[in-house]
Amino acid sequence: MSKIFDFRTCPTTGLRVDRTAEKLIKANAVAAVIFLAIGGLFGLLVALTRWPAVHFLPADWFYLALTAHGLDVLLVWIIFFEMAVLYFASAILLNCRLAGARWAWTGFGLMLTGALVTNVAVLRGQSSVMFTSYVPMQAEPAFYLGIILFAVGALIGCFVFFGTLVVARREKTYAGSIPLVTFGALTAAIIAVFTIASGAIILIPTLLWSLGLVAHIDPLVYKTIWWAMGHSSQQINVSAHVAVWYAIAAMVLGAKPLSEKVSRTAFLMYILFLQLASAHHMLVEPGFSPEWKIFNTSYAMYLAVLGSMIHGMTVPGSIEAAQRARGLTKGLFEWLRKAPWGNPAFAGMFMSLVFFGFIGGISGVVMGTEQINMIMHNTLYVPGHFHGTVVAGTTLAFMAITYLLIPLIFRRELAMRKLATWQPYIFGIGVAGISIFMMGAGTLGVARRHWDMTFADALLPFDYPSVAYLMMALNGIFAVMAATGGLMFVLVVVRSVFFGRRLAENEKPSYPEVPPQAAAVAHYGSAESPHIPGTVFLVGIFFVAFVLYYFVNWKYLSEVWPLS
Amino acid sequence: MAITPPTERIWWRQPIAKVELVWIIIAFTWGLIMFFMMIFWHGAGEQNLSSEAYQIKPERFAAHAQKMIDDHQVRIEGGFPVVHPPPGSDVYLIARLWQWWPILELEKDQSYRLHLSSMDWQHGFSLQPVNINLQVHPGYEMVLTIRPDQAGEFGIVCNEFCGIGHHMMVGKIYVAE
Amino acid sequence: MTDNNNDRGDASPAANDDQEMLPLMQRILDNPFLLLVLGVATPAVFYIIWGIIEITQIPIAD
């Protein structure tokens, strides 16, 4: 190994840590949290405006804030954090130097520049076109340019990740196959390459169109390819946060996957089929055949859903197996009751798992059913669903692992522990509320991306049912709760990272408690079947809820006007 | 652990625990049921979106709509023509900034061929409180057969963001007994 | 279920680095660039290309 690379040895895990990779992880994570704060603030303003009794922003500011909210959290926060996850899962977990550090910094610079350019374009007020920017509605050129720069930067980050995999294998910094978490990150990186390529294919011509150099962009073609980016970018999140679940279960409880084969095959289902679900957005468009819709919207016969359902058992199953091996064997749930609920990394991770499955996962599959989509498309059900996946799922998981990154990578003691302990609960429950009440309002037909559900200024009168108003008020209340949880997170991170006590070179952090690797208690692939009755029970409840909710929605569909 | 390489070199040959295998089989079967449910509904269900569509210039679509209005207008309401087309006929609904034009008056349990297209940006046809939601594109005409099975007054909300007047874009469909 | 400990041995897992010995599926899953090609090609063909073909086949109204 060349001497020019600077490593330290982690006192907790014994891993060699490349200091350049460490700096890049820090930079990307800090940028991510800054944009989470900005985007979260816009989100609060949106929710307060949609709370009928408050109706906070005027219409033009509402549409501006909604555009900025979508961009800053759905794209900027998440992709920045994913870059941190990619560098962590490659350089750190593989004991390796980061390949092409200069490229990684270039990518970071491009992403930061792009995010700022697009934000400025939106704040100037001429680009309130929503995150989706459907043509022929047109934004300023800078809006598209910023997203393109951001995407190119992220693509560079992906290739730095692939390069690091190559270097690690060549330099034999690990033995055998890459760790499961790295495999999950690889899944995210592969989906990211498809996502970004699709974005480039459609946004570069759109930029030229907004500059007046291209005459026409077909709205249907735009929408098809845009969603290859827009939906797949959320599939990066799914892959990344599942990897984060496995990582937290391993780091906090020493849990081992029940079966490497099963978990990796589940990720393979993601690699191959998850991105087909971009068709969820194209189910009520003119002209597509039922064959195209059914094949794509079902992720090729629900094979990617199979992947998620597998992770939904193996992640809690591995936790239960580890806990039982520690002696927490009483009844169905002693392992769960006596889990480290005071550790925000674990609490956030477990809530992310439950909310993603029950709220985001089930609603996504139901809404993505070809015919059922007609009673949900573009209603508030849609943002209700994806706040369940991307916020209660991804964002909560990313917040959870941040509590481990602060001591392990930032080498700072976690500050404001009481606040940190409460944070995942406040945020998680707040977001779960947002999701559920938006889905409720959507079921009653309330439109998404809409400033005034009373239609006070419309030429023709129309009223939503009064229950819908209640739903939107509850949505507002839970949004305030989620925003409080988000603020708590930002406070803890800023206080710890910038003002927290620096850990000495060989000091092990005392909190959150991270058992050394030797404490790994479970053996995967053991000859006898793992004993996980609690997980089986939970998975059974999930399955029953899934089946019931699925058929209830077919019932709803059968009650609307016949059409063909 | 999940953060370290697998301990067995040949992990692919490790046996799968029975509990996992059972769950995989259940989940896979459920996926097949959901897949075939969509196909089944194409035969057995009454709510299937047609894939009939055409490329059309906005002016041309507007001309079709105007002809329908000229032929079948029955009154004017709030500045909007109200049209009562004969059952079974072709019915045109224009989406534009920020109106659904004209107001349609249909008859219960009669079928109509509904044509939808936009004059400018994308719009979202959201029939309430029935809750049927369709995307309307400029340059494309979607044609579907609808059969209202309830009488009354229905709103058409726009649920695709279409600029600053988006929240004022409301249309109407009457269904007579 | 068989006894899995047979495969493990006492040597380090990488003692034998001969990829030829590994099962096919494991070699596929250990090959990030093959997975990258599959993961980009599958949605490109089934979602994007098939979808764009369908759009181009929408007839022009008469």
Measured by residues with Cβ under 8 Å of the partner chain's Cβ, the largest interface is: A-B, 110 and 90 residues
SSE run of chain B? HEHEEEEEEEEEEE
Measured between the Cα atoms of the first and last residue of chain B, the distance is: 68 Å
Major beta sheet summary of chain B: 7 strands, mixed
Mean pLDDT over the residues of chain A: 93
Mean pLDDT of chain B: 95
Distance between the termini of chain A: 67 Å
Structural class of chain B: alpha+beta
CATH class of the largest domain in chain B: Mainly Beta
The stretches of 5 or more residues of chain B where confidence is low (pLDDT under 50) are: none
> Any idea what the CATH architecture of the largest domain in chain B is?
Sandwich
Level of helix content of chain A?
Answer: 55-70%
CATH architecture of the largest domain in chain A: Up-down Bundle
Proportion of residues in helical segments of chain B: 10-25%
Entry summary:
With 564 residues, chain A is mainly α. Chain A has helices spanning 19-50, 59-92, 101-123, 141-170, 180-210, 219-253, 260-273, 290-297, 299-325, 334-337, 344-367, 381-408, 417-443, 466-499, 533-558, and strands at 7-9, 16-18. A two-stranded antiparallel ribbon of chain A has the order 1-2.
What does this structure look like?
The complex is a heterotrimer of chains A (564), B (177) and C (62). Chain A has helices at 19-50, 59-92, 101-123, 141-170, 180-210, 219-253, 260-273, 290-297, 299-325, 334-337, 344-367, 381-408, 417-443, 466-499, 533-558; strands at residues 7-9, 16-18. Chain A is mainly alpha-helical and 564 residues long. Chain A has two domains: 15-253, Cytochrome c oxidase-like, subunit I domain (Cytochrome C Oxidase, Chain A), CATH 1.20.210.10; 340-503, no CATH class. In chain A, strands 1-2 form a two-stranded antiparallel sheet. In chain A, a hairpin with a 6-residue loop joins strand 1 (7-9) and strand 2 (16-18). In chain A, helix 1 (19-50) packs antiparallel against helix 2 (59-92). The radius of gyration of chain A is 23 Å and the shape is globular. With 177 residues, chain B is an alpha+beta fold. Chain B folds into two domains: 11-44; 53-176, Sandwich (Immunoglobulin-like). In chain B, the strands form two sheets. Chain B has a seven-stranded mixed beta sheet with strand order 2-3-6-12-11-8-9. In chain B, strand 2 (73-77) and strand 3 (80-83) form a beta hairpin. Chain C has 62 residues and is mainly α. Chain C has a domain at 22-56. Chain C contains three helices and no strands. The longest helix of chain C is centred in the C-terminal third of the chain and has 25 residues, at 32-56. The N and C termini of chain C lie far apart (67 Å). The relative contact order of chain C is 0.06. Mean pLDDT of chain C is 78; it is low at 1-16. The chains are: A mainly alpha (564), B alpha+beta (177), C mainly alpha (62). The interface between A and B is large, with 110 and 90 residues.
